[in-house]
Amino acid sequence: MLNTWRKIAAAGTSGLLLLAILVSAGAGYVKAGEAAAATQGSEQDIFRIVALGDSITAGYEPGMTDVNVKPYGYAERLLEQGYYHGRSTLGNYGILGLTSTGLLNYTGAIKDGAVITAEGIQAGLPDPRIEQFAALTPQIRTELAQADLITVTIGGNDVSSLFLQYKQLTDEDFQAQLEQRLSAYNTNVKTALENIRVVNPQATILLADQYQPAPKFAVKEAYPKLMGAAERLTAMADSIAASFDQTGAPVRVAHIAKQFVGLEGSLTHIISLDFHPTQLGYEKIARVFAELQWGEYRTPSVAATAPGSAPISIVVKGTELNTPNKPVIKNGQNFLALRDVLNAVGASGKWDSKTASATIVYGDRTVVITIGSKYIKVNGEDQAIDTPAFLQKVGKEEKTYLPLAALATGLGFDVKYSSQLKTAFINP
Fold first, then answer.
1. Which helix (H) or strand (E) element contains residue 340?
2. In whole angstroms, what is the distance from residue 372 CA to residue 213 CA?
3. Class for domain 6-294, per CATH?
4. Which residue, 154, 117, 157, 148, is CA-closest to 133?
5. Residue 220 DSSP class
6. Angle at 196 between CA 92 and CA 229, to 5 degrees
7. How far apart, in whole angstroms, are the C-alpha atoms of residue 426 and residue 428?
8. Does the domain at residues 305-427 carry the CATH identifier 1.10.10.10?
9. If DSSP states are collapsed to H, E and C, what string results for the chain?
10. 89 - beta bridge partners?
11. Where is the Copper amine oxidase-like N-terminal domain (predicted)?
């Protein structure tokens, strides 16, 4: 995938903004070095994702130096897909401008658990977080060792300059340089995967091929040549994956390149002279990864996102709630009807009209929520909540609405909210 990072490298203070944006990227995104710590000591079954690679992994788009813009790339979408299947975490270590040589160096340091310098990874990297990523290799090794799924996007920066120079090269020179770069890609990626396998012998590894970003109308007669080069890289990725794939330790290729063919103008920012994916492009990439991993790519139902319907979608243990008692947002908090909560989580409960309180039992936890109270009781202990439970009239009945986050925390559930999907994921 072709990368134009000179603009970022020359942007001065914009690098600091990008650092803040990428490291605090979105609901459920685990900051660098925190994926292992976030679940340390937990007995819950957690699906752990580690994403390695270049700016595509990082989720970069033009304008990301704007402090109000947060990355929402394929890795963040893949994390959301994980929520549909249970508790999930993401450690995203996509490095801007990384080549396969840089990936080789980085995974080598991660394998050894040794701190490496930014220059030791790759000279001149424009990523403002590179010093942080270089210093975190021992923690990243721990995350990598615990990962269930490891994704890799790499190779675009290996061939980008060649693609940009195609007009100045004869066909013979183009093919000769392509062979050299593909040979280096082959060697580097194989060794990088060997490094990863030393750390984690069993995780699923999904290696992406590389799309060709230039639409046919822009390159005209050169389009077949550029597409042929992309197809060669795909074949190389297929060969690499096949050499590593084995029962219990799958290595597969996420074939994203074919998703972009004929749609380059809408799936990339090529019109603004940047070859990174648009949001639609990142969704296409995420869909390929998710379908390889889970056999599906899920989105909220049309009913949940249509105008005039529920403000959010609620997914409990992988099942989206479908109820006439629509979720309510009050004082920035999400509320659900008591009966819907009980049905969704498989908990038992009762309503005490004398005390206007609901008692919910799930496993070894008992939660008591009282209408109007700013406290809930969890196994007899008071816990403060921001907004009390309330009664809401639905048709001719009054329904008890409970604060979702407080209830889920009281019952020991994990709650993640995706502002992009307008969906709350609840997993025991």
1. helix 338-345
2. 56
3. alpha beta
4. 117
5. G
6. 80
7. 7
8. no
9. CCCCCHHHHCCCCHHHHHHHHHHCCCCCCECCCCHHHHHCCCCCCCEEEEEEECHHHHCCCCCCCCCCCCCCCHHHHHHHHHHCCCCEEEEEEECCCCCHHHHHHHHHHHHHCCCCCHHHHCCCCCCCCHHHHHHCHHHHHHHHHHCCEEEEECCHHHHHHHHHCHHHCCHHHHHHHHHHHHHHHHHHHHHHHHHHHHHCCCCEEEEECCCCCCCHHHHHHHHHHHHHHHHHHHHHHHHHHHHHCECCECEEEECCHHHHCCCHHHHECHHHCCCCECHHHHHHHHHHHHHHHHCCCCCCCHHHHCCCCCCCEEEECCEECCCCCCCEEECCEEEEEHHHHHHHHCCEEEEECCCCEEEEEECCEEEEEEECCCEEEECCEEEECCCCEEEEEECCEEEEEEEHHHHHHHCCCEEEEECCCCEEEEEC
10. 48
11. 315-426
- Show Cβ contacts of residue 211 under 8 Å, excluding neighbours closer than 6 positions: 1, 230, 256, 257, 259, 260, 264, 267, 268
* pLDDT, tens only, 200-213: 999 999 999 999 99
CA–CA dist 255, 258 (Å, integer): 7
Write out the two tokens for 333: 């908090």
314: closest CA among 347, 337, 282, 280? Answer: 337
Find out whether 57 and 18 touch, Cβ atoms under 8 Å. Answer: no
227's tokens? 């597409």
Q: Residue 365's closest CA among 353, 343, 381, 385?
A: 381
Beta-sheet strand order (sheet of 348-352): 348-352, 357-362, 365-370, 375-378, 381-384
Q: What token pair was written down for 283?
A: 């969704």
Annotated domain spans of the chain: 6-294, 305-427
* Contact call for residues 271 and 277 (beta carbons, < 8 A): no
The type of residue at 255 is H
With vertex at residue 411, the alpha carbon angle to CA 407 and CA 414, rounded to the nearest 5 degrees, is: 85
One-letter amino acid for residue 61 of the chain: E
Q: What is the dihedral of CA 411, 403, 36, 136, to 10 degrees?
A: -160
- Residue 84 C-beta-side C-alpha neighbours within 13 Å: 19
Identify the segments of the chain with pLDDT beneath 50: 1-34, 36-42
Bridging pattern class, strands 251-254 and 204-208:
parallel
pTM (predicted TM-score): 0.87
